[in-house]
Design a protein that fits this description.
4 helices; mainly alpha
Amino acid sequence: MGKVELDIGIDSELLAQAKRLGIAVAGMSETQLRLHLQKVDPAGAEERATRWAEENAEVIAELNGFVEEHGAFGAEWRRW
């Protein structure tokens, strides 16, 4: 039984970080790579998370306002 080649998409920033750190990514999914990079380079992961929050601050604020005004989806069925 032979191997089949498969093209998958992985965030280019994650690949660049892995390359910078000398991490081989063969056989890793994007999720596995993210988890591995969080362990070996927590400062880089924190930087990406901070940048993401800054880039999406406006939408996050809008969503929070919507939830404050209308409540969370399904809240009326929650029992906790």
